[in-house]
Design goal:
Blueprint lengths: L1 E6 L4 E6 L36 E4 L22 E3 L3 E6 L13 H19 L6 E8 L11 E7 L4 H17 L3 H12 L3 E4 L3 E4 L10 E5 L11 H21 L6 E6 L14 E5 L13 H6 L8 H9 L11
Antiparallel strand pairs: 1-2, 1-4, 3-5, 5-7, 6-7, 6-11, 8-9, 9-10, 10-12, 11-12
Helix pairs in contact: 1-4
Amino acid sequence: MSELRFNPLLGEWTATATARQDRTFFPPDDYCPLCPTEPGGFPTEIPAETYDIVAFENKFPSLKRKPSEPVVEDDPLFRVAPSRGICEVIVYSPHHTATLTTEPIEQLYKLILVWTERFRELGEHGFVDYVFIFENKGAEVGVTLSHPHGQIYAYPFIPPIIKKEIEQSKRHLVDTGKCLICSIVETERSFAARIIVENEAFTATIPFFARYPYEVHIYATRHLQALTDLTAFEQRSLAEILKQIMVAYDALFDRSFPYIMAIHQRPTDGGDHGHYHFHIEFYPPMRSATKLKFLAGSEAGAGMFINDTLPEERAAELRSHIKPVFWGEA
């Protein structure tokens, strides 16, 4: 059973998806559903002996193309709706123990091309108002499959965080005549202490307002709204800066670094979102080599994050692990 229930206190939708209780939970390596299917072996979700990057619909989705009717009746206060949408899995590599950090830069570049194609295609559905591309990496953020993969949720509405960013961006434009993220990038560059790495097309920084100790935002230099707006040069530049951040993350504590990676881009609802600005946000749960950042009372109950580190200090630490990227080494 899957349906959408509206929260009148917060003005946002919650999905109920009971089938997800049965999703695969850390299977043995030789029964991984995202590995290639070997001749005579366990049949996986990918019926091929090898592959490059694969996209397919999630077997345990929160949203469905053809959802069933809700189990409760709609009410003026307690609104309910079918959970119409699309959930996809993007498998990054056939190598079970790989991560985007260990894969060559060329694989990241190809992944960006896949993200772009899926954003374009999913956004063309009339019932899809927002295409959210993300990755959950590591058991610390709730991952149940260790094989390198990400996900895409095609929502029938604009999700709350993106909606708030759009509203703030519009307000800043009205007040100043400038793009909000363009202003953020300009200020971060002039201060410089929080910048991790930059190239001609992107700037990566632990932002002034970071909620997590090692939170990183990657902002496009040029004012653009979505993956589909990137030039070929910008696609390669994005692959490079993503690779540099991921390598630096792993070098921090000499381990595969857990994170949530969220790609923020314009909605696909047909509206005018020219004031919005494409960027990527990383939320790592590590606050030290041995401690996690938990969402406790203030964060979960009131919505105010408490960061017990200084962004300027964490930026210097992460910046010290930035390495150059070389193409053609695969």
